[in-house]
Design goal:
Helix content: 40-55%
CATH superfamily: Phosphoenolpyruvate-binding domains
Largest sheet: 8 strands, parallel, barrel
Distance between the termini: 30 Å
CATH class: Alpha Beta
CATH topology: TIM Barrel
Radius of gyration: 20 Å
Oligomer: single chain
Number of helices: 11
């Protein structure tokens, strides 16, 4: 059922109003037109064209290999489907780190070539100058703190971040710096729920959590995990809302059986 006719377009301003009104924000990942169309019509608030496409769509072990060109391709596909939701695109690894000029150029390419509404980047104080420079071109920026998957080789593990006091204090400082730099929202990934709640209360911009408890202003999951298309990944924070892997496998088994037994196509299914 198509819902988007009744749904108004979500903007960065809408997200801010939702936080002020105490309305939770729902975000999911999308990488292609067909899935994005389903998610948009079902009323999702934000679609994140995540660099998780590197894992989910391309089968890489980390998010690092995906290129800016590939991210733009995925973003174009999602934007064509999105009639209602806000579309945010991840700046991939190597397209912004340590170089504010490159960060701006990468962001401009994403916005110009895909028609997306905002970009997202990982990191705190070290990316503040890039955030300001991107914003100088009128491009909204979403931040990302806690477990930052592009830094996986620095961390060496995907465990919960900011459990130690020093890292927790740095995260609080970074969150404030990102807000002051002009980010319209922050993703908080895999940090203690108490810390995420405290950060969310102290910020005027909305926070979106993944494995960060219920005290954030919204939640995000990878669609393929949430829909049970992927079976391999089962962290504590993931709630599966469907088991599509089983449904798809059974459909393919039935189709193959029907083809091999001369059952498909039938008389009625030919011209």
């Amino acid at each position: 059922m198509s819902l988007h006719k009744e749904l108004k377009r979500i903007t960065t301003n809408t997200i801010q109003e939702m936080k002020a009104a105490g309305e939770k924000i729902a975000m999911l990942t999308a990488y292609d037109f067909s899935m994005a169309k389903l998610l948009d019509e079902a009323g999702i608030d934000i679609l994140l064209v995540g660099d998780s496409a590197s894992n989910v769509m391309a089968g890489h072990e980390t998010t690092l290999p995906i290129t800016l060109d590939q991210m733009i391709y995925h973003a174009q596909s999602v934007v064509r489907a999105a009639k209602h939701c806000l579309v945010v695109v991840d700046l991939p690894f190597g397209s912004y780190q340590g170089n504010t000029k490159r960060a701006l150029e990468s962001s401009i390419r994403i916005m110009k070539e895909s028609g997306a509404h905002a970009v997202k980047l990982e990191g705190g104080a070290e990316v503040a100058d890039s955030v300001k420079r991107i914003l100088s071109a009128g491009i909204p920026v979403m931040g990302h703190l806690g477990l930052t998957p592009q830094s996986i080789y620095k961390f060496g593990t995907y465990v919960v971040r900011a459990k130690e006091e020093a890292e927790a204090e740095k995260l609080k400082r970074d969150a404030m710096i990102l807000q002051q730099s002009g980010c319209f929202s922050l993703v908080l990934e895999k940090i203690p729920a108490k810390l995420a709640t405290e950060v969310s209360k102290n910020l005027s911009i909305p926070t979106i959590g993944i494995g960060a408890g219920s005290g954030t202003d919204g939640q995000v999951l990878v669609s393929h995990d949430m829909l049970g298309i992927n079976h391999e990944f089962h962290p504590r924070f993931l709630r599966r809302y469907a088991s599509l892997a089983d449904i798809i496998a059974q459909a393919v088994i039935n189709y193959t059986k029907d083809v091999k037994s001369h059952n498909f196509p039938s008389e009625a299914e030919q011209y």
